[in-house]
Design goal:
- The complex is a heterodimer of chains A (142) and B (417).
- Chain A has helices at residues 11-14, 21-36, 87-95, 124-141; strands at residues 2-8, 40-45, 53-58, 61-66, 76-83, 107-111.
- Chain A is α+β, with helices and mostly antiparallel strands.
- Chain A has one domain: Alpha-Beta Plaits, CATH 3.30.70.1060.
- In chain A, strands 2-5-1-6 form a four-stranded antiparallel β-sheet, with helices on one face. In chain A, strands 3-4 form a two-stranded antiparallel ribbon.
- In chain A, β3 and β4 (61-66) form a beta hairpin.
- The two termini of chain A are 37 Å apart.
- Chain B is mainly alpha-helical and 417 residues long.
- Among the domains of chain B are: 1-105, no CATH class; 315-417, Tetratricopeptide repeat domain (Serine Threonine Protein Phosphatase 5, Tetratricopeptide repeat, Alpha Horseshoe).
- Chain B has helices at residues 6-29, 32-53, 59-77, 82-105, 111-119, 126-136, 142-149, 153-169, 182-201, 212-228, 233-247, 272-287, 294-307, 316-329, 333-347, 349-360, 370-381, 385-398, 402-414.
- In chain B, α1 (6-29) crosses α5 (111-119), α7 (142-149) crosses α8 and α9 packs parallel to α11.
- In chain B, 42% of the residues are buried.
- The chains are: A alpha+beta (142), B mainly alpha (417).
- Chains A and B meet through α2, α3 and α4 of A and α1, α10 and α12 of B.
């Protein structure tokens, strides 16, 4: 299974305080371990929300909201995509991660949906849509 | 079962630590069979003690310390292994000096890598290499391996026992091969990963079209190997090939499990993360000068498909050229057949049919289901449906995979004059 691991923001990360050399080194070592275990598929750190924007959807209306955003603890400061066998494995790996921020912070693990999860959800309509696309492709190939 | 359940935690710790544990112990006791026994002893101890004590802060270190203790106790105590123990002690003493030098100028200072080379040792038949690698590096149980390969569990157990005995008899060294020895040994490792992946990707028998856990495992081991041997182009190339093949998994079957052929697949369902990784791994292999090599060429072919936004946009002339080079490097009628398909797509079915007809007399392909299938496809496009139908039916008779057989019969039925 694939999981997304979400590192939440802190006051410091939102203020654009860069991680210490010590933390960067520890994190680098942890990332290397993940790569050597064939676990890490991707991962990035995100700039503070003051660099970002949101698009708000309200019916047909779209409005743009510039960062920064208030609810610091709910913001994401970085993420990984891991390939693991179980949620328990992801938890075990995460426990080995150096504390990504000085002080208290939470890191969240969220399993990614897989095709098999959609078994019953793949409605006849969606299936028909797929069949239609397949037929079109076949016709183009002919 | 909740993920925080102790058994799931121990399972997870085992998956993370077992290969490193067995590798470290093999270096210590110089026998992979004994090493696995001691690692298993440590696992049993964890299962007994952790429910009371909780999971230790450093479970890997705990397991290693426990296994080491068991190893020393057993070797000291057992009259059964007295002779072996003396020998081992002597070896350990002799090793101490040698290792300082060896480890300094070793190409790779990694027990895990040594273990991979050991379980994929060419002295073992390929089935044994596969089983031993999945067991010791993948951390899979005999039950899991048996289920994946659709063979009885005792068969797998026997293969593993025999493999360990063969390694001991041949005194296969626990080291990373160097110099002229490296290339053939590495080829043997790559072959094992390729076999495991393919077994999962397209089952040769039975009702399951895919056994995804084998693909996951092969891909994981390939990624590990890439990290451990970063300068080996063919390792990156194999990883690229597996990433790119695996990227199509979500599109390879419909909701009922029926296979969908490559050109009919909904490309929006291809896994972009794996495609990105595959293309990056291929670029790495090419940077390292590994363009003209079997896995690099296959990965380059897979990359042509991955890069094409639609089936119609596929760069068939390039694929045909890559197959031509591949056929020069590793001549095989199967590659020739694939080359013929690419030529058919690039230059039309009339250009490909004579190439396929020339292969029909090849005894290697006498019972190969994809030959009549390809021929059927060309005949259909050439407006010869009756002959096409006969070829698809013949292909279905030859195919052992129930799902693929259904697909071929459906294609036969679609051929109406």
């Amino acid at each position: 299974m694939r999981v997304m691991v979400l590192v939440k923001a802190t006051k410091d990360s939102e203020a654009g305080v860069m991680p210490s050399t010590e933390l960067l080194t520890a994190m680098g070592k942890f990332n290397e371990e993940l790569v050597k275990a064939g676990v890490m598929l991707a991962g990035e750190g995100l700039k503070a929300s003051s660099n970002g924007a949101r698009v708000r959807f309200e019916g047909a209306k779209r409005s743009v909201i510039d960062g920064p955003f208030a609810e610091t603890k709910e913001l994401v400061a970085g993420f990984w995509i891991w390939q693991v066998k179980s949620l328990a494995e992801a938890i075990e790996w995460l426990k080995r991660c150096p504390n990504p921020h000085p002080g208290v912070c939470e890191v969240e693990i969220r399993p990614v949906f897989e095709a098999s999860d959609f078994g019953a959800e793949l409605t006849p309509e969606l299936r028909a849509q797929e069949d239609r696309m397949r037929k079109e492709t076949e016709q183009r190939a002919r | 079962m909740p993920p925080t359940d102790l058994h799931s935690t121990i399972d997870a710790v085992w998956r993370i630590e077992s290969a490193k544990l067995i590798a470290g112990l093999t270096r210590l006791v110089r026998d992979v069979g004994l090493a696995e026994e001691f690692a298993q002893d440590a696992l049993v101890a964890a299962l007994e003690q952790w429910p009371a004590t909780g999971v230790p802060d450093h479970p890997g270190a705990w397991l290693m310390a426990t296994a080491r203790r068991r190893a020393i106790d057993t070797l000291r105590r057992g009259p059964r292994v007295e002779a072996q123990h003396d020998e081992l002690a002597a070896q350990l003493a002799a090793r101490a000096e040698r290792d300082v030098d060896a480890e300094l100028d070793d190409d790779f200072g990694d027990d895990l890598l040594r273990l991979i080379f050991l379980t994929c040792h060419p002295v073992l038949p390929s089935e044994a290499r596969v089983a031993l690698t999945l067991r010791l590096l993948g951390g899979l149980s005999s039950t899991e391996i048996a289920r994946a390969f659709l063979v009885p569990e005792p068969t797998i157990q026997q293969r593993i026992v025999r493999a360990k005995r063969t390694l001991a008899e041949h005194q296969a060294p626990f080291e990373v091969p160097r110099g002229p020895e490296l290339a053939p040994r590495l080829a043997s490792v790559l072959e094992v990963l390729y076999l495991v992946f393919n077994e999962g990707y397209s089952a040769t028998a039975g009702d399951d079209w895919m056994r995804p856990s084998l693909c996951d495992e092969a891909l994981r081991l390939a990624r590990i190997l890439s990290a451990l041997t970063p300068l080996e182009p063919e390792v990156h190339a194999l990883t690229a090939l597996l990433e790119l093949q695996a990227s199509r998994t979500p599109a390879r079957t419909d909701a009922t499990g029926t296979p969908i052929l490559l050109l009919d697949q909904d490309r929006s369902r291809w896994d972009r993360v794996l495609i990105t990784r595959g293309l990056a791994a291929l670029a790495r292999a090419e940077e390292l000068g590994g363009t003209r090599a079997p896995y690099a060429l296959q990965a380059a072919i897979a990359a042509c498909h991955a890069r094409a936004p639609t089936a119609a946009a596929t760069d068939w002339p390039r694929i045909a050229a890559l197959y031509t080079t591949l056929a020069e490097l590793t001549p095989s009628p199967v590659i020739e057949l694939n080359r013929a398909v690419a030529i058919g797509m690039a230059h039309g079915p009339a250009a490909a049919l004579p190439l396929v007809d020339a292969l029909a007399s090849n005894p290697t392909l006498a019972n190969y289901p994809w030959l009549p299938s390809v021929r059927g496809d060309l005949l259909r496009k050439l407006g010869r449906p009756t002959e096409a139908r006969a070829e698809f039916e013949r292909a279905a008779t030859l195919n052992q995979n129930a799902r693929e057989r259904e697909l071929l019969l459906r294609r036969a039925a679609e051929c109406t004059p």
